[in-house]
Amino acid sequence: MFLDDMAKQNSWDVKDVETKIIEFLVDVHMSVEKFSVDYKKEQGRFNHVTPTLYLNALNLLFTCIQTLYTKTNNYKKQLSSGLDTLKTT
What we know:
- By secondary structure, the protein is mostly helical.
- The protein has one domain.
- Helix content is 87%, strand content 0%.
């Protein structure tokens, strides 16, 4: 999994990364809960949030992180290759 690779390359603990992601999602959940109460008071309408929405958000978050991770690694490889070329010329 890319989280394991990230942790190894950056000397991070995978559990710390997972904990931060979980804390972020808990914060999102609490914010949506507060927003839903305010929405009910102001508009008189309900906002229904299902567990599936949180799973979709989690999948989106992981997809974004993985995409950025892949791009960053590609840039690092290009930079390293360019530096090696400069050294040999």
